[in-house]
Write a structure and sequence with these properties.
With 283 residues, the protein is an alpha/beta fold. The protein is 34% helix and 25% strand. The longest helix is centred in the N-terminal third of the chain and has 18 residues, at 72-89.
Amino acid sequence: MTSALKFLAFDTSTDMMSVALSHGDQTWHHHGVGGANASAQLIPSIHRLLAQAQLQLSDLTALVVGQGPGSFTGLRTACAVAQGLALGANLKVIPVDSLKAVAEDARQALLDAQDTEPFNPLEDVHIASVMDARMSEVYVGVYRWQAASAQWTSVLPLQVGTPEAIAAELSQLSQLSQWSQGGQVGLPRLVLAGNGFEVYKERFALQAFELSGVHVRCVAAVPHALALLRMAPALWLSKQAVAPEWVQPLYIRDKVAQTTAEREAIKLAKASGLTLPTSLPPT
């Protein structure tokens, strides 16, 4: 029964650090400044939430971690902490791509708004997560919410590119008939979630969608740990949890060099006795 499940979730892929804990229907959460601060603040924040819930790490069902894409420092910190805590408490970890968490955060925002026209979050819907990737680029991932199974499926592989290129690709995809309401041919629709379309609003041309006959709705969203918690039970039941050593950052963009902040984060993680990710699992 899902009421007996207990999850600890965290995401530090952006400038926001988000931590949340669930025990059945009860939740506790904290969000604060991420980035370079996440390496020093994440573990104390986790311990505070556990104390509030009167739980030990060993009481948990599993950890849930946003594995990226996003800040290189943040991804390494999150994965290192997930590995260290899970190994120490003999837990498994559910890694979730952070853009999927953005889509879930947007879906919940639509649900809370109780505004079903023309996007009904209780029905199947496609959401494109578009997040600032710095260096004048955006990350994008497209997901379909399947209301019947209450699960997300990936529609478009994670990508990074210029705002212009990503907007053009999404405009073409959203004109496909299966993206229309109820899977029938009609007014193509698209929910854009995240912050990339706002950060690069001069380059991410929303008017191009309207000119193509695509109705667009933009929802500000982030990879919040509460979104990870909402997805956790279904992911656990579908056996998406892995051993700690297989938890790895999902970069998308190739890494060229470590910044000063990243080097400092790695030092702090090592000083805490945490295991840093060093290799990728076999494919």
